[in-house]
Amino acid sequence: MLYFLGAGLLVVAGVGIYFFNQQEETYDIVEDFKSIKTAMRAFRNENIGLTKGIENLAPYLPKGHTVKLDRYLVSIDDKFLVVKKLPRGIDPNEIVKKIGGQSKYSDGFLKLSFFTLSNSVEPTAVIRIKPMANITTKTQIEYSHEESITDNNEILKVEWENNEEYFEEEGVHVIKLRVMDKHFRWSEWEQLEIFVSEAKGVKGLAGSSGHIMVIHNNGFVDAYGDNSFGQLGNCTNQNNVKLEPLVQLKLVEEIAIGDYHTLFMKSDGRVFASGKNDFGQLGIGNRNNSKIPKLTWGIDNIKHVACGNGFSAAVTTDGFVYTWGQNEYGCLGHTNSHFADRPVKLNDIENIQSISLGKNYMMALNYDGTVKGWGTNDNGELGLGFKSKNNEPTITLLKGIKQLACGNGFTFALTNNGKVLGVGNNKNHQLGYDGEKTILFPQEISGLKDIKKIVTSGDHTLALDETGNVYSWGQFSPVNDDFAIKPEKSDELKYIKDIAVTLNKGYVLTDEGEVYEFSNRFSQMIKLEKAEARIEQYEEE
């Protein structure tokens, strides 16, 4: 509180008595006020209670701002900055207009208000989320406080409670928010209830070499098959003879499987890897095998992953490609060394939609439907119209493509109108074509139409059409004479959701989440058994 003891005398609530007059020295009161007000805010952020003297604000002054604090006083209630000596020639009323609020100049005294309560509005927190509805345990939620109401739209602090990016459990989750305005006033806590449902059903299959995985819509994974190098990511080397829940990871969006390693792409765009790592194909900065899914080094915002024989690749959300692992035939497209144990970005390739990795070569699908390829080309598998090794990403003869499937010296390309083109090695009828042993120019595979997905491993291939029919051709391992040299449709499998293939078996996934395994020409078909429900989660961050 201010007390006045006659002309030129001022008592500031017990601080002292000062003569109030004008002096010859000039300085910028407004700039000093801004610095002192900033110091006041910083003081309040770290302390409870009043300043008890302007000297206590000295440590909180902005760096590079020199203010002679002995020119000023702070009122005992911390509401005003009082100018002890007004510089000569300064119009105090102009200063009052600039500062605003409850500032005033009267009876020869200049008091500058730290607060503008008379013109302010009560702070009110407003929560906004995206999406607003249909939120599941797999949904990534974005939060915003930007629509909160404060004086002059200035917000000093924001506090959230329970604003999780994902909610793993279904049910009602309460989000809380409060904001602090420039007067250091907190709003009331604003609450928003979010209803989260379980993402039901199965999403798809992934398979190659000797193991497969089922991806659920809620981001959980079931694993089956060979685990010699820990490629199942379950912290063991024991094979799964049933579909076992993979408890080490959650919120998995996509899986890619190589010969003996696996990449797990999560909903947040990060990639984890497990299995064999002799060429650094896990991308973890060393060449040690891992039974635990480990975070692949240096990449994020990933939308797609792929695996080959000892090498890996990933596509970012903005269409760039990273590769790592073995590089014996220049399949990485970026280095002359034999391997890379960390992801390396390709400099001369962009606008990529997806990638597919075969044996020592790689194909990249552009958004415009054209395809680039690099790596080994001994059988013309790159689709260039000739045979020869090619280390640089090169445009191929393939156009109007929406999906690629690379194999052991041969490539399939799915066109926008559902046709399948093949190129490369056809010595064992891998291309489903009864003719030349090597196809250098893309050729349509007869007997297939309205195809929506094609997968291959070793010398065997499966295709799935729009109505859920499954086609099979080529040889499983071990080789026998009973195999289809052209695409054959299963009479038993109908309305199939997804397909996968390993070196010695084919697999289909139904809408009900059942997985069926079969051999050549859909023989020896069995339904895979499922293990017990999931237990507590674990993953290495």
Task: Summarize it.
With 541 residues, this protein is mainly beta.
Question: How do the strands and helices of this protein lay out in sequence?
Answer:
Elements: E1 2-4, E2 9-12, E3 17-19, E4 22-23, H1 29-46, E5 72-74, E6 80-83, E7 86-87, H2 92-99, E8 104-106, E9 109-113, E10 128-130, E11 142-144, E12 155-161, E13 171-181, E14 190-196, E15 202-208, E16 211-216, E17 221-225, E18 240-245, E19 252-257, E20 261-266, E21 271-275, E22 290-295, E23 302-307, E24 311-316, E25 321-326, E26 339-345, E27 352-357, E28 361-366, E29 371-375, E30 390-395, E31 401-406, E32 410-415, E33 420-425, E34 438-444, E35 451-457, E36 459-465, E37 470-475, E38 484-489, E39 498-501, E40 506-509, E41 515-518, E42 526-527
Parallel strand pairs: 4-7
Antiparallel strand pairs: 1-2, 2-3, 5-6, 6-9, 8-9, 10-11, 12-13, 13-14, 15-16, 16-17, 17-18, 19-20, 20-21, 21-22, 23-24, 24-25, 25-26, 27-28, 28-29, 29-30, 31-32, 32-33, 33-34, 35-36, 36-37, 37-38, 39-40, 40-41, 41-42
